[in-house]
UniProtKB/TrEMBL annotation:
SUPFAM superfamilies: TorD-like (SSF89155). It comes from the Bacteria. Keywords: Nitrate assimilation. The gene is narJ. It holds the Pfam family Nitrate_red_del. It comes from Agromyces lapidis. The keyword Transmembrane helix does not apply. This is Nitrate reductase molybdenum cofactor assembly chaperone. The keyword Transcription does not apply.
Length: 248
């Protein structure tokens, strides 16, 4: 999938509280396999709009390069998508990720919710990307999970893995919520979680608290986003590169 068009361009004691759900134990992946798993899940987790069939085909062609435990999760979603009307799939996507608090695709939402802290959290994502030599320039907020996964797949900087690790609790909340709904997207997030290191106890406790209480709910609207609003954002490009030059 190396030549496929991408979003980014360079620039306790209770046993139920201390154990992972079956099927989410981490896998030992080399760097190339982890990158492939992250770009594949990025392409499948994005909204099923224009270009979705091409994304499905690109991921399907790469399944043989992934470990069976991850390839089977992606295959299940591809089969579901192939058997589902595109309009119905899009409606299901919106109903899942836009209307349920624990199924949010924006990672900072799990820690900050609709509170004044969210603006600072989004700026932190922008700063992390810039620290790794990338400039975010997409029609999405910078904490959008498919974008973060693509960053992880394409960046050589340790910042990429640190960004996912910092929001691991939110990823686990998303995984569990999708599993409870028997969502076709659950396996994709489960595959992402399995590509990451074992949960440490502090992250596990934060995740369990979020599962219980949900994200913070102080609603302040989107005015605090300022220049980070979606009309300004569009794909990654190298810092200092002209927009069209970065596409080459």
């Amino acid at each position: 999938m190396a030549n496929f068009p991408l979003i980014f361009r360079r620039s306790g004691s209770d046993a139920s509280r201390s154990s992972r759900r079956p099927g989410t134990a981490p896998l030992a992946l080399d760097d190339a396999t982890r990158r492939l798993a992250h770009i594949a899940t990025s392409l499948l987790l994005d909204y099923p709009g224009e270009g979705f069939d091409a994304r499905l085909a690109a991921v399907e062609a790469s399944l043989g390069e992934l470990p069976p435990a991850i390839a089977s999760e992606l295959r299940a979603f591809i089969d579901h998508a192939a058997a589902t009307d595109r309009e119905a799939l899009a409606i299901e996507y919106v109903a899942t990720f836009d209307l349920k608090r624990k199924c949010c695709m924006y990672l900072s939402y799990y820690a900050a919710g609709d509170t004044r802290r969210r603006g600072t959290a989004l700026v932190t994502f922008i700063q992390a990307y810039r620290a790794a030599g990338w400039e975010f320039d997409a029609d999405e907020l910078p904490d959008y999970l498919p974008a973060v996964l693509e960053f992880s797949a394409r960046s050589d900087s340790p910042v990429a893995s640190e960004l996912l690790s910092a929001h691991r609790d939110g990823l686990e909340v998303l995984r569990e919520a999708l599993e409870k709904q028997r969502s076709p997207w659950a396996g994709l997030v489960r595959a992402v979680c399995r590509s990451l290191p074992e949960l440490d106890e502090a992250t596990r406790e934060r995740y369990l608290e979020l599962v219980s209480q949900g994200p913070p709910a102080e609603t302040v609207g989107l005015s605090f986003l300022g220049s980070l609003g979606p009309t300004v954002l569009a794909p990654y490009q190298p810092v200092g590169a002209a927009h069209e030059e970065a596409r080459a």
